[in-house]
């Protein structure tokens, strides 16, 4: 697994946990840490979104052929 795969998966886990907190308790952890819609919060939200797009491409990209 590449470093980019690990990083994007970690960001997706952070994003998923944050949305779970928003849905269950109305608590936005990213906003609580970095400020509501601050530049840092927006960067985190954007990175989570870009991570999702990257992970989608890994799902639809054909697997490399293995040499025998």
UniProtKB/TrEMBL annotation:
The chain crosses the membrane at residues 6-27, 39-56. It holds the Pfam family DUF378. The keyword Metal-binding does not apply. Signal peptide: none annotated. Keywords: Membrane, Transmembrane, Transmembrane helix. InterPro entries: DUF378 (IPR007211). PANTHER family: MEMBRANE PROTEIN, MEMBRANE PROTEIN-RELATED. This is DUF378 domain-containing protein. It comes from Celeribacter ethanolicus.
């Amino acid at each position: 697994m590449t470093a980019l795969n690990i990083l994007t998966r970690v960001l997706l886990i952070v994003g998923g946990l944050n949305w779970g907190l928003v849905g269950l308790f109305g608590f936005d952890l990213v906003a609580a840490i970095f400020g509501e819609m601050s530049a840092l919060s927006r960067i985190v939200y954007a990175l989570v979104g870009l991570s999702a797009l990257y992970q989608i491409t890994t799902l639809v990209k054909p697997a490399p052929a293995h040499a025998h």
